[in-house]
Amino acid sequence: MKKPDPYLARIEAFVEQKGGGVIIRKTAGGYSLFLESSGKPVARFRPTGQGDAVEVKWWSHRDRWDDIGDFGPMVMPLDKALEYVTEDPVGCFWH
Questions:
Q1: Cβ distance 25 to 15 under 8 Å?
Q2: Does the reported pTM lie above 0.90?
């Protein structure tokens, strides 16, 4: 039997609550979000192993997941990370 994935369950619940339109793929130790309509990358969450903290990544102009800004990984609790991506204060997720 497959072990429940609390991160995946929380991300799916959040996406559903916000109206859907996002596909979630668990790969390489993290969770990648893509627009359902176009398949374009939105954000990536990589658990840090420290509580429910995740690194938040964006799909950069280099066609890869990258840190936001120049000061290393942005780390925050999963709920805050989901809200951060939704609000998109730096305009890097929903392009």
A1: no
A2: yes
